[in-house]
Amino acid sequence: MSDAYTVRGFWGKFWHQSLRWPFTSVSNYITRDVLRLPRPSILERYANISFTFFMSGVLHLVCNAILGIPPSESGAVKFFCCFPLAIIIEDGIEEFWHRVAGQDKVNIQPVQPVPFWQRLIGFIWVGVWMCVTSPWYLYPAARQQPDKDWLVPFSFIKAIGLVAVQATLVLYGIFLYFAVGGEI
């Protein structure tokens, strides 16, 4: 989670990676082999990112449809397709910062940690971006009928009670922390 102070870091390092590599492989094929965009180039870089997020949006759109959310109501594609814009904004601000601060990006040592204040601003940025854009994706699911078991056909909370589920989660968290060195 410490890398999630940029939108790129949130999706590239923090969030699950199971879809990233298959989608990146397809987007690389499209941008490099089909479109023959020069590599490396800004156009190829952002086209690659855009295709990857578009494919993720389409996959989530299909998942929403399976769960009973009509494609016309799903905000999945809109939600995922807004992230390349956020990454372009980040890259522009980073480039501006390097020019203003007089830092040469080539000579910056990669082991040098990002200052706390920069990470703090980054976490705020990512939080604001997610708060603004997440409703596009999450609200259609939240509007589903509460009595309809649309995601999972069985509820452990209804079966054993909320207190028992909470206690189980706390005990499991304690186990993870002490047994396998989990991070709080």
TrEMBL record:
<dbReference type="GO" id="GO:0008374">
    <property type="term" value="F:O-acyltransferase activity"/>
</dbReference>
<keyword id="KW-0472">Membrane</keyword>
<dbReference type="InterPro" id="IPR032805">
    <property type="entry name" value="Wax_synthase_dom"/>
</dbReference>
<feature type="transmembrane region" description="Helical">
    <location>
        <begin position="159"/>
        <end position="180"/>
    </location>
</feature>
<keyword id="KW-0812">Transmembrane</keyword>
<comment type="similarity">
    <text>Belongs to the wax synthase family.</text>
</comment>
<dbReference type="Pfam" id="PF13813">
    <property type="entry name" value="MBOAT_2"/>
</dbReference>
<protein>
    <recommendedName>
        <fullName>Wax synthase domain-containing protein</fullName>
    </recommendedName>
</protein>
<dbReference type="GO" id="GO:0016020">
    <property type="term" value="C:membrane"/>
</dbReference>
<keyword id="KW-1133">Transmembrane helix</keyword>
<feature type="domain" description="Wax synthase">
    <location>
        <begin position="1"/>
        <end position="82"/>
    </location>
</feature>
<feature type="transmembrane region" description="Helical">
    <location>
        <begin position="120"/>
        <end position="139"/>
    </location>
</feature>
<dbReference type="InterPro" id="IPR044851">
    <property type="entry name" value="Wax_synthase"/>
</dbReference>
<feature type="transmembrane region" description="Helical">
    <location>
        <begin position="46"/>
        <end position="69"/>
    </location>
</feature>
<keyword id="KW-0808">Transferase</keyword>
<dbReference type="GO" id="GO:0006629">
    <property type="term" value="P:lipid metabolic process"/>
</dbReference>
